[in-house]
Hints:
30% of the residues lie in helices and 24% in strands. 45% of the residues are buried. The protein has nine helices and 15 strands. It is globular and about 60 Å long. Helix 1 (14-25) crosses helix 8 and helix 3 packs across helix 8.
Amino acid sequence: MRTYHVAIAGATGAVGTEFLRLLETREFPLETLRLLASERSVGRTLHFRGRPYTIELLSKDSFEGIDIAFFSAGGSRSKEFAHAAAKAGALVIDNSSAFRMDPEVPLVIPEINPEDIATHNGIIANPNCSTILLLMAIEPLRRLAPIRRIVVSTYQAASGAGAQAMQELLEQANDMLKERPIVPRVFPYPIAFNLFSHNTKIDETGYNEEERKMVYESRKILHDPKLRITATCIRVPVLRAHSESVNIEFEAGQRPSIEAVREALAGFPGVSVVDDREKNYFPMPLDASGQDDVLVGRIREDMSNEDAIDLFLAGDQILKGAALNGVQIAERWMRFAPVQNQA
């Protein structure tokens, strides 16, 4: 088996450290590893397979001899360094929004559109976390019957804003319980015991950036530019794992049975059905945290629309919503390009 020279850009962040853990637990065929970050992290040490690795400065010269570069250092860093990495010969798997809507860059969920990997020109984009979790539930249902419209509301954990946001939630919860004043630093408003509209810019349509990402990325991944989809994205005081409430309307007269929906979801790789009506037990972010699979439940007919169903899902934003999907892209790429890899 061929082994690969791998770099992680943004190695000290929440997603970067998850990339590192996954490369170890999934026994990724790795020959050498280079951990890259900004100046404030240079010199720190992270451990991988029992040995220490020193964080190096991320620069345009960091990628000589690298086969695969996982980027999770933010959009501005990706725009600054990803093309240099690709030019050096690395396959860039980018977790930021920098290239997702670039028509020359494939946007990939390996269970859904793996064939798009073959069209890359050095960069493959990892979709937005909420988009990934949604489409993992949508794709098996699209294979049952044509979908006419999707309405989704998200309940997004602090993890989506990074490690510092997760820490802010913990600190604010402690401060509030001790009746100390709350001073937001990462989020614009208190996150502990609160919820608010997703903290991204709202445009003239009234949609925020996160909602627009879900709409446009879904259309690109599914190769359906006319897909009717609308989203409302909300931050909630959950540490890790996003949840989503989804209404799916099928073409008139083609709504599949609930039994068929359950079977399709249960048989789809990366999805686990959690749908116990008797015990009122359904997907929860606490259960989804640390899980590779997206949990799907509350599967029921929409009593207001004979062509629609409702469901609820929860998925780990840092895993399938980010690092795991990126590693799976790399694993699938290794199958797609054996000749190129031997060059």
